[in-house]
Fold:
Amino acid sequence: MSESKGKKFEDYFKIVKHKLPYWDELPEIDLYMDQVIALMDKYLSFHKTDENSTIITHSMINNYVKLGIMPAPIKKKYSREHIAYLIIICSLKQALPISDIKDLIEIRVKRTSIEETLNFFSDLYDSTFNTVLAIGKKFSLKNASEDALFGDTALFMAMGSGASKYIATQIVEINKRNKSKREN
Structure:
């Protein structure tokens, strides 16, 4: 336990700031499926739970197209637009069901473009990550022992994730009900 004296939150976790790309950082040329998968792995590798996990597969991309969450490729090539959709989908699937992701993307893209949606999403991700990290640091300082740091801080983060998922799901459901009422 004496090891924990003087150590900071970052000393234990080596938390690196994650950054999602903005529209202008996406490739300007169209890519084939294997290139898209490699790019998603580069952009979203921090979502991997271990070295063997995958961010996205051929079948996942095909399913997203079949479900209408993203547009179909043109002549088996994927543009910036497709990559933007995939960044958003792959990031949100950590917390929400695909049907809710589809609804959220549709709501946002109706108001703006996919370009603006990706830029908004990247900004939102950055500020959310920093906020959660700051709360985690503050919480861990209250629980100075190493056992509390690992146990209680992890529990706090998991509970926060669960609460956020619940609230997001409720908001999406309310929107669905309101949309249904407007259509009837």
User: Anything to note?
Assistant: The chain has a mean pLDDT of 84. Residues 11-183 form one domain. The first helix runs from residue 9 to 13. The chain has one domain: 11-183.
